[in-house]
Amino acid sequence: MKNLSKNRFAFIIVLTLLFTMFLSNSVFASAVYTQTPTMNNAWGFAQGTAQQVKTRYWWMDCHY
Fold it and tell me: What is the rounded distance in angstroms from the CA atom of residue 44 to the CA atom of residue 41?
């Protein structure tokens, strides 16, 4: 039970990655993307964060 918070954090990251991948492939995402500019900013921020997490973990996999 000690690693619960760490596991929860990793679970949230994985969930967010899956969610963004699902949204990027759906027609609904493109419809929302063209309609609301505030969603555009949040969408770009979420995708940039996911890309940073992926790159950081890839770097750790390669170098450690």
Answer: 5
Sign of the torsion formed by the C-alpha atoms of 40, 44, 47 and 50: negative
- Number of domains present in the structure of the chain: 1
- Residue 42, pLDDT above cutoff 50: yes
User: What is the per-residue pLDDT for 7?
Assistant: 78
Confidence at residue 5, expressed as pLDDT on a 0 to 100 scale? 72
Q: What average pLDDT score do residues 3-30 get?
A: 72
Determine the Cα–Cα distance for residues 42 and 58; give it in Å rounded to an integer: 24
Could you tell me if 20 and 47 are in contact, meaning their C-beta atoms sit under 8 angstroms apart? yes
The boundaries of the domain holding residue 17 are 4-63
Q: For 28, what's the count of Cα atoms within 13 Å in the CB-facing half-sphere?
A: 5
60, two tokens: 């750790």
